[in-house]
Amino acid sequence: MAGHTTESKTERMLTIYHRLYSGEVVRKQEIAELFQVNARSVQRDIDDLRAYFANGSPDQGVHPSVLYDRKMQGYVLDCGSRKMTGGELLAVCKILLESRAFTRKELEPLVEKLVYNCCPPPERKLVEEMIGNEQFHYTEPHHHKEFIPDLWEIGKAVRSQRHMEMDYARLGDTGLVHRLVRPVGIMFSEYYFYLVAFIERREEEGKEYPSPAVYRIDRIHSYRILDSHFPVPYRNRFEEGEFRKRVQFMYGGKLQRIVFEYRGPSPEAVLDRLPTAVVVSRDRERNTCTIRAEVFGDGIDMWLRSQGEQVRVISRKVLGQTLTGKENQNGGKGHEI
């Protein structure tokens, strides 16, 4: 009999624990009726869970607490800062939908898991209603390729500094090129995820390049993570954040400093587009400002041309350095978009 009682209590506590962590409201009377016990037994179970959460949690020092919500007329799990507000979740979902980075098959479970796991129960339905129309009319990328598992495996190769072999479809090429690379970063820009890597060799040329190359991950036809490791001394490590500031257009190549005059309605838009940009001077009479920025590769040229008469290039200087700090002796070739 005692064993049966112990088993019942364990089952009740696991049920309460699961419901709380799922964001549900736990009501004593419902649990009591489900397990055919009195409400006092359920209250003791809840008190035991409160003590468990108060004494320690495996979640890196974050201690959830079980609180009674008078409005919901039941107990809820308060996770403090671990839960997003409705507004925070709405912002993340809007960005995710607007990015158009994933196929519909990958996007829908991503959004569902975000809403279910990150949002307080009272706000879930409202968030779902706010993004429902965008979900329905979502347009997936034309490559139609699912790649989240590949993103994870390549990310682990970056983290463990392991070589990677791949067959890659370059834009405009009818065939595939084979590459042995040192993967050093993953970035996202304008609909696509990119791998940043240093080429160990190009079989058709037989030489290495010290500048990073940029590969769209959805164009990687096949790949293999090798057991061999490549060294990255801490002082010369690749920093995705610093590289990201200077490669706004996903073109590798030489690092250059460009100075241009901008005559337009919003210098702030230029500063946001080019994170390394600074306003050197302003001419309020002519309504212009001089801006200096550091960028990798020639992708900046496309943006400059798109600005028309609003932009006039004053000077451009090749700095001849990669982010590893080494001199760029081989022309800086790297981009393989």
Lay out the secondary structure.
Blueprint: H1 2-21, H2 28-35, H3 39-55, E1 65-69, E2 74-78, H4 86-99, H5 104-118, H6 121-136, H7 148-160, E3 162-168, E4 177-189, E5 192-202, E6 213-216, E7 220-229, H8 240-246, E8 255-262, H9 267-273, E9 278-283, E10 288-296, H10 299-306, E11 311-318
Antiparallel strand pairs: 1-2, 3-4, 3-7, 4-5, 5-6, 8-10, 8-11, 9-10
Helix pairs in contact: 1-3, 2-3, 4-5, 4-6
Number of strands: 11
Radius of gyration: 27 Å
Taken as a percent bin, the fraction of beta residues is 25-35%
Summarize model confidence as the mean pLDDT.
82
Reported for the largest beta sheet, the result is: 5 strands, antiparallel
Elements, N to C (H/E): HHHEEHHHHEEEEEHEHEEHE
Helix amount: 25-40%
Count of alpha/pi helices: 10
Give an account of the 3D structure.
With 337 residues, this protein is of the alpha+beta class. It is 37% helix and 26% strand. It is built from ten helices and eleven strands. The strands form three sheets. Strands 6-5-4-3-7 form a five-stranded antiparallel sheet. Strand 3 and strand 4 form a beta hairpin. The longest helix has 20 residues. The protein is elongated, with a radius of gyration of 27 Å. It starts with a helix and ends in a 19-residue tail after the last strand. About 4% of the residues have low confidence.
